[in-house]
Structure prediction request, 52 residues.
Amino acid sequence: MLPETPSIEQLSRIIGSVAAPAFLLGAVAAFISVLISRMNRVIDRSQSRKIG
Prediction:
């Protein structure tokens, strides 16, 4: 016996609930990447001032 196929509305709700956390995680990862790159620039500048 085959299970009942979900309607388009149910599928769109499921896809929306699955996609939202993925986009949120991607945004958080991008934000952390920007913060890390800026921190690296600050560290590089502070080290170059000590040397030179």
